[in-house]
Amino acid sequence: MVKVKNIHHTILSKAWATLKRIDFDYQFSSGKWKRLSRECYNRGNGTAIFLYNPQKGTVILTKQFRMPAYENDNNDGMSIEVCAGAIDSGDMPLETIVREVEEEVGYKITNAEQVSTAYMSPGAITEKMYFFIAEYNDKMKVNEGGGLDSENEDIEVLEFQFEEVLEMLRDQEIKDAKTIMLIQYAQIHKLL
DSSP per residue over 14-61, as a string? Predict the structure, then answer.
């Protein structure tokens, strides 16, 4: 049963993505209707991938500056994350993540397995993430990675033993939700 009606959108910003205020009537479980207002940030959907080498027991991660993390913690703003990227209009999640892996970390993968989808912060952001896993090996390396200058990316490519990654998770060095989710997926499914 639909519990929402009289929806009105007001665009507050279209700078990097679209920020809207959405006013709507919502029917509570008591049956009472109330007029509510929420802000909703639409930056599109994204992809993320856990890259692992079962022969070496290693994982590829990235490190890059994130202004919201800097703003929130007043630390250096650097974030250790899995390779990820926004899905361009008309692209499919798989083709996006294959392209992002080559651009960000310098490996040419030909396939990846989608293992999950999730809303990252459904109270404020429309973004749905498509989660992938893929094996890599040294023969797949085609460039140094680091991202695209045209997208103002400055990405450090990191390779760690999986045990080191688990320790970084325990020590809270890794705070990115998509990365935590994929590391836990790898641990639960014993990928390494």
Answer: -SSSEEEEEEEEEE-TTS-EEEEEEEEEE---EEEEEEEETTTTEEEE
For the four alpha carbons of 119, 120, 126 and 129, in that order, the dihedral sign comes to: negative
CATH classification code of 46-188: 3.90.79.10
Find how far residue 90's CA is from the centre of its chain: 19
Q: Which of 83, 135, 74, 80 is nearest to 106 (CA)?
A: 83
How is the chain split into domains, by residue range?
A: 4-42, 46-188
pTM: 0.93
Q: Report pLDDT digits (tens) over 39-84.
A: 999 999 999 999 999 999 999 999 999 999 999 986 899 999 999 9
Q: How far is CA 66 from CA 100, 147, 165, in A?
A: 18, 14, 20
Q: What is the mean pLDDT of residues 106-135?
A: 96
